[in-house]
From TrEMBL:
A biological process term (GO) from this entry: lipid metabolic process
Organism, as annotated: Acrasis kona
Annotated Pfam families: GDPD
Gene3D superfamilies on file: Phosphatidylinositol (PI) phosphodiesterase (3.20.20.190)
Protein name (record): GlycerophosphoInositol inositolphosphodiesterase
């Protein structure tokens, strides 16, 4: 997930048979999001990784999505191999699991917006202890086809990786293609869009009018960049009328978990007060949490979901809190 202020947009697909997330009241389904699938057992954002996360017990999946110059949405964190973040990730810095991105030739370090999807699959892959056939970067169409059989997949979170300068050209194409693929393959899960751009939010809202899809907006702020009194995720959710809020992610989790506890406690209190006064429930999703003890604390406190690199750890935390 993006470690800056992130706007999450949940698109409810009316033409699908969805396993609904209740937003007027607390859902009985605690959401366990596999972060890029199961990156500790397979390469992030690959079909094997998503299958593994579901086999481990996830009921939601988080993934990064971007688009090629021939308008094919595909699942990848990186869009430009020349960027500092992409360069660092190829060296193993900031990757969530066992694989690193790999560019097969120095001569092909173009951005994905300069490449067809066929070229992306030819030159971009992963390196790690996984068979090469499982390292292939999938299109969203591939994902929808593969994952449509999972009745227990409740939410698909798409973290949009399109730079601001490319939004006008590519975002509407991405949205329409994703919705078409979801409908074609009868994907039953809700789709949750993530972006740090208010311009992207505006474009998605325009598309929602065209497709008659109601949108809900959730602000998620990386809390290590905020002072405690400035970090009020649920307050922002109430202000804009959203159904979800996120306390944010700890950059150094073992050091600043006390901070997450502080702001989560305040957000839960505010959420419950708001629900008591208005009857409108705001779900709280924490990310990225792998530690079982931290997850147990968050579950007991009353959050509604966790994004994780370790699904089994969160499942064990849930079992131990019952």
């Amino acid at each position: 997930m993006n470690q800056h202020t992130t706007v999450l947009i949940i698109a409810t697909l009316l033409f699908l048979k969805c396993n609904a997330i209740e937003t007027s009241q607390k859902s009985t389904n605690f959401l366990i999001f596999g972060h890029g699938g199961s990156p500790k057992t397979a390469c992030e954002n690959t079909l094997l990784s998503f299958h593994n996360a579901m086999r481990e017990g996830a009921n939601a999946l988080e993934m990064d999505i971007t688009i090629s110059k021939d308008f094919i949405p595909f699942l990848s964190h990186d869009t430009d191999p020349k960027s500092p973040i992409s360069t660092a990730r190829r060296l193993g810095v900031g990757v969530p699991g066992i694989c690193r991105p790999y560019i097969s030739t120095l001569l092909e370090r173009r951005s994905c917006f300069e490449m067809t999807f066929e070229e992306v699959q030819k030159y971009w892959t992963y390196t790690g202890p996984v068979a090469q056939e499982n390292n292939i970067i999938p299109s969203f169409e591939d994902f929808a086809r593969e994952m449509s059989s999972y009745n227990n997949l409740l939410v698909i979170y798409l973290d949009i990786k399109i730079p601001e300068k490319h939004l006008d050209v590519y975002l509407r194409k991405l949205i329409n293609s994703v919705l078409n693929s979801a409908q074609t393959h009868q994907l039953r899960a809700k789709i949750l869009w993530g972006t740090s751009s208010t311009k992207a939010v505006s474009i998605i809202q325009d598309e929602s009018e065209i497709h008659k899809i109601p949108l809900e907006v959730n602000y998620s702020v990386e809390f290590v960049t905020k002072l405690p009194h400035d970090h009020k995720a649920v307050d922002k959710a109430i202000q804009v009328g959203t159904s979800f809020a996120s306390p944010g992610e700890a950059f150094v989790k073992s050091v600043v978990f006390w901070y997450l506890k502080f702001i989560t406690s305040r957000d839960v209190l505010k959420r419950d007060e708001h629900f008591s006064e208005t009857g409108k429930y705001i779900g709280i999703i924490s990310w990225t949490i792998d530690d079982q003890d931290q997850a147990k604390w968050l579950i007991k406190k009353g959050v509604d979901g966790i994004i994780t690199n370790n699904v089994s750890s969160i499942l064990n935390a849930i079992k131990s809190t019952k």
